[in-house]
């Protein structure tokens, strides 16, 4: 019967004892269970008192006994398999119990079902609160059903000499509906508390999912009763039929559940989530009830998975799902879109509220997950999009949230809200990725160069090429908006080829010494021909290999260390410099650096920019510099914005400085001017920051 469904499946998000005590969810659940138990006692007492004062002497106790035994047997064997269809998920015991009630002894039916439920839960070794809830909810719904029969003045068997009077038939159907409905409501109320879902949404889903099965199981009760009353020999026949109908229904419901849920976390899957969004976004009144969609992506899941194994990886995803459930407000719809990507739908929420939920959530998700007693921190980036503002269909809203999430990843800002391009006439409908392909063909990409200052020699040694996109409609688009998207497609190949080709031409046109640094993605290095193609370009242009530096981010390195190191070795053997970008944000150890044989590291600007006012960062930076020097690696500090930081870096022995203090990224012409103004080997720049001809916003 339904009682088995709500709390037994291991994947059911019933609060684990840990969350029960920590979140306060436990208190709400306990209080609810207590209320149901008290109501149950009252209702059962009322039923037994009414029954005691009425005459039910004609009950067929032999048949009653046989069916009661069948009931207990099936209930104990009923596997705990259903989760979401909690309300209304059926087992054959449903048929048998209702049958007992129709036989004329509701109290007996309730006692048999209560007994079966307790035995089943004891056999399954369920926690006591689950046992109490299961037995209370089922007995309460049966008692309510019995009161309906009493209301029709039916105090004995429904069949009178093999006949079913119309009044009795009506009472029976009504009572069946009430038992089913109240049982569903009691369970959905509990699930709504635990899953933080909306009660009515759960009821709708549960009923849609198992209506046909429940109807079939309930309808079998009178058939079983009538047939068995004719001859007990018919019992095995009707019993077999009941079993097969149950099996079929069970499989159908399980398949329906699987189609909409992620097997690992039991959260909604992408398809079901899309439908959820559409059901809100496509509502005619959606303009008056706005909502928000978050896309969450774990920052270092790949590393966890690769280093600790898939089993731990799965555990992390499951725990992460649980954490989302416990930290989000009631009514939030949560899904796993695939891989390490999750999503949240908040309805009837205003923009400020959603944004504060997102940043609060981000903060809470920073806490390491407890995986088998070990703290594992994976970090999360969250992209937020609002509807109807950022999209009118689930695809559009999800796309917008996705773009925002990539932005959060790129800027490592944690949470970003989707920003439709300011000049955009068609907000939120930008097929940005489609445009990236055209951008190359239409020559819409340009490069800016940010010079790097050699501390000791006071020379501008290197210029890092940074990509900018002059979009025909949206104006200037920064790399954070599109590089991460392109990195997920093959488009990153031609883009990087373009950057390298343009950068070496540009740099060669203004200097004979300047090194060109370019950013290279993990996907580029995974391309077996990338290194040889690049070396061929250098040769064709007559650009010395030692004047090209490739920057690869620390996180990208972790993606496929084998493949990456093949490409990096090829570059290094040819004389190209290799440095690790954004150092300190990933997990690479110094031994990895040695194995990969790189030339230098660029300490991430998150450590640098405020190093002068943050002792921890100052210490980290100092330590990184001396460790790197121990390995004979050159150290670049990125994001140097103030003189105080510069002084600190200089005294720590940092080799090269890059940042707004030295210069913002400049168009080629301005870079040429700076190089001319501050000739190589001059120390001028060290004391007089360049006046900036073109300040990047
Ligand atoms: P990155 O490689 O870490 O590049 C440095 C970023 O920091 C640049 O942002 C630069 O404008 C900014 N920056 C420089 N100095 C300072 C400073 O003093 N303070 C602060 N707060 N920021 C500073 P930008 O140009 O928006 O580039 C963002 C990221 O996009 C880059 O981060 C890089 O990862 C990626 N990117 C840029 N161009 C390319 C490219 O051609 N190919 C690839 N694959 N990625 C690129
Ligand atoms: Ca870089
Ligand atoms: Ca960087």
Distance between the termini: 64 Å
Helix content: 55-70%
Overall strand count: 16
Please tell me the overall pLDDT: 82
State the secondary-structure class: alpha/beta
Shape: elongated
Bound molecules: ligand C2E, calcium ion
- Rg, nearest Å: 34 Å
Lateral strand order in the biggest sheet: 8-9-11-12-13-14-15-16
Largest sheet: 8 strands, mixed, barrel
Indicate the low-confidence ranges by residue numbers: 1-23, 79-88, 422-430, 681-697
Q: What's the oligomerization state?
A: single chain
Strand content: 5-15%
Number of helices: 27
In short:
With 697 residues, the protein is an alpha/beta fold. Among the domains are: 6-257, no CATH class; 270-420, Alpha-Beta Plaits, CATH 3.30.70.
Describe the overall structure.
The longest helix is centred in the first third of the chain and has 32 residues, at 199-230. Among the domains are: 6-257, no CATH class; 270-420, 2-Layer Sandwich (Alpha-Beta Plaits). The protein is elongated, with a radius of gyration of 34 Å. α6 (128-151) packs antiparallel against α7 (166-195). It contains 27 helices and 16 strands. The strands form 3 sheets. An 8-stranded mixed beta barrel has the order 8-9-11-12-13-14-15-16, surrounded by 5 helices. It is an alpha/beta fold. The structure holds ligand C2E and calcium ion (2 copies). Residues 450, 465-467, 478-480, 483, 496, 499, 519, 521, 581-582, 605, 609, 638-641, 659-660, 665 line the site of ligand C2E. The site of ligand C2E has 23 residues, from β9, α16, α17 and β13.
């Amino acid at each position: 019967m339904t009682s088995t469904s709500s709390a037994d499946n291991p994947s059911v998000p019933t609060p684990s004892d840990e969350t029960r005590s920590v979140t306060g969810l436990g208190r709400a659940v306990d209080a609810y269970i207590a209320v149901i138990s008290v109501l149950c006692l009252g209702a059962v007492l009322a039923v037994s008192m009414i029954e005691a004062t009425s005459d039910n002497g004609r009950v067929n106790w032999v048949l009653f006994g046989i069916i009661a035994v069948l009931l207990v047997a099936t209930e104990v064997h009923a596997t705990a398999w259903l989760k979401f269809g909690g309300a209304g998920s059926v087992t054959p015991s449903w048929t048998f119990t209702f049958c007992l009630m129709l036989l004329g002894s509701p109290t007996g039916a309730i006692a048999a079902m209560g007994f079966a439920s307790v035995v089943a839960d004891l056999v399954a070794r369920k926690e006591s609160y689950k046992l109490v809830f299961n037995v209370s909810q089922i007995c309460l719904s049966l008692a309510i059903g019995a009161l309906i029969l009493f209301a029709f003045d039916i105090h004995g068997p429904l069949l009178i000499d093999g006949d079913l009077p119309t009044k009795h038939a009506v009472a029976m159907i009504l009572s069946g509906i009430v038992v089913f409905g109240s049982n569903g409501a009691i369970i959905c109320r509990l699930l709504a508390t635990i899953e933080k879902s909306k009660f009515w949404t759960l009821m709708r889903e549960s009923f849609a999912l198992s209506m046909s099965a429940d109807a079939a199981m309930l309808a079998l009760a009178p058939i079983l009763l009538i047939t068995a009353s004719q001859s007990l020999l018919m019992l095995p026949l009707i019993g077999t039929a009941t079993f097969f109908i149950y099996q079929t229904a069970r499989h159908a419901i399980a398949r329906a559940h699987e189609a909409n849920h992620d097997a690992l976390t039991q959260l909604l899957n992408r398809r079901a989530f899309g439908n959820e969004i559409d059901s809100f976004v496509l509502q005619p009144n959606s303009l008056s009830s706005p909502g928000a969609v978050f896309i969450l992506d774990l920052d270092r899941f790949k590393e966890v998975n690769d280093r600790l194994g898939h089993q731990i990886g799965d555990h992390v995803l499951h725990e992460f799902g649980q954490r989302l459930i416990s930290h989000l407000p009631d009514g939030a719809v949560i899904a796993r879109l695939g891989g390490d990507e999750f999503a949240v739908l908040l309805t009837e929420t205003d923009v400020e509220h959603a944004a504060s939920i997102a940043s609060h959530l981000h903060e809470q998700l920073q806490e390491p997950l407890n995986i088998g007693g070990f703290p594992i921190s994976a970090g999360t980036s969250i992209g937020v999009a609002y509807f109807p503002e950022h999209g009118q269909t689930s695809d559009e809203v999800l796309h917008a949230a996705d773009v925002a999430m990539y932005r959060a990843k790129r800027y490592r800002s944690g949470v970003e809200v989707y920003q439709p391009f300011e000049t955009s006439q068609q907000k939120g409908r930008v097929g940005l990725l489609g445009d990236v392909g055209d951008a190359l063909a239409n020559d819409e990409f340009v490069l800016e160069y940010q010079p790097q200052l050699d501390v000791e020699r006071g020379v501008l040694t290197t210029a890092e090429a940074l990509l900018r996109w002059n979009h025909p409609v949206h104006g200037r688009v920064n790399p954070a908006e599109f590089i991460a998207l392109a990195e997920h497609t093959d488009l990153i190949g031609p883009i990087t080829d373009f950057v390298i080709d343009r950068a070496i031409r540009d740099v060669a046109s203004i200097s004979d010494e300047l090194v060109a640094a370019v950013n290279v993605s993990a996907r580029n290095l995974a391309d077996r021909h990338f290194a040889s193609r690049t070396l061929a370009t250098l040769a064709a242009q007559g650009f010395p290999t030692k004047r090209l530096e490739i920057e690869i981010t620390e996180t990208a390195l972790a993606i496929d260390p084998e493949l990456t190191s093949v490409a990096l070795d090829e570059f290094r053997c040819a004389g190209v410099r290799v440095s690790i970008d954004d150092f300190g944000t990933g997990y690479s150890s110094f031994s990895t650096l040695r194995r990969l044989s790189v030339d230098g590291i660029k300490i991430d600007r998150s450590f640098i920019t405020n190093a002068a006012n943050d002792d921890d960062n100052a210490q980290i930076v100092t330590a990184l510099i001396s460790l790197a020097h121990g390995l004979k690696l050159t150290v670049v500090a990125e994001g140097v914005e103030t003189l105080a930081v510069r002084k600190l870096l200089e005294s720590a022995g940092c080799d090269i400085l890059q940042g707004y203090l030295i210069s913002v990224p400049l168009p080629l012409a301005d870079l040429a001017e700076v190089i001319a103004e501050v000739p190589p080997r001059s120390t001028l720049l060290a004391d007089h920051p360049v006046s900036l001809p073109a300040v990047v916003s």
